[in-house]
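thread from #wetlab-drylab

HS: before we spend reagent money on co-crystallization trials with oxa(dethia)-CoA, can we at least see a predicted complex? here's what I'd submit
DV: go for it
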Amino acid sequence: MNAGIIGIGRYVPEKVLTNFDLEKKMDTSDEWIRTRTGIEERRLAADNEDTSDMGVKAAKKAMEHAGISPEDLDLILVATVTPDRPFPSVACMIQEEIGAKKAAAMDISAACSGFMYGLVTGKQFIETGAYQHVLVVGVEKLSKILDWNDRNTAVLFGDGAGAAVLGPVSEGRGILSFELGADGTGGKHLYQDQYVKMNGREVFKFAVRQMGESCIHVLEKAGLNKEDVDFLLPHQANIRIMEAARQRLELSEDKMSVTINKFGNTSAASIPLTIVEELEAGNIKDGDLLIMVGFGGGLTWGAIAMRWGR
Ligand code: UT7
């Protein structure tokens, strides 16, 4: 039995914060942010809108897209480093709100790689036949853990949510191969200590190396080549890091998905947000080979080769 995405949805908050807005708040410029990161604007959740609220909205859309009801869910996995509170988990809060009475629920802490960790975890339950439907949500309200006086980090991140329903799909479709990894020795380069703290250059070097390697590894594991790739969906952290991964796969520009300009780095939400963007634009078609790849705090990384469709 193969597991694949049978429905997907997203939610981003209404409030837009542009680079020009940031220029008024701190010593930065639109020019610096755009050229160094590719970001033009990001979304910010309202004060009374927490991580679980955004996750619920994305989850409902994903279930509607999949054509299933909340009672059909066996498990809810929420990838987040910005839970409403340490416990109950965001997954349990979403379970209550959507009425997924039969579902088990837990959060996954793998920072920006969280959505990859969630999909791979959910896949195991489906492929063993233990569960039919697993909801995987990637959601962050990073704005609440940013130091708005630190231009090194404050300009990079945004809030948002993406959710996917995993279920059994036909042979040759769904998740074909994956790679997950961690290197705790690099944890000191990106962590939360009240606010997000980051050694940007170290994370940059790690990301460029790891994204490229992981993409190649999942292709090899699936017995596929660079030429087989229809779409690269990288974690949206920095356009220069994403470009390095694209070049490693020797893909043309139109084969890499870019949403960082609109949403900034939304951590665990960035890959599902981006998949929805491409689906809505009609760019991802049934049977396409997608490579998803993420990296983040931990340090962690994860990549998936997926044949789109049910
Ligand atoms: O999801 C994973 C999360 N993290 C990442 O993916 C981050 C990976 N790293 C990066 O994306 C890049 O390292 C950054 C975008 C964070 C920084 O870009 P950089 O090209 O590595 O710049 P830098 O840190 O080497 O800084 C260059 C200069 C410095 O000034 P000096 O020392 O050369 O005078 C910084 O102080 O840019 C300055 N700078 C800024 N200037 C204007 C740093 N942040 C800003 C800013 N506005 N927001």
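DV: The chain has two domains: 2-169, 174-307.
HS: ok that's useful, forwarding to the group
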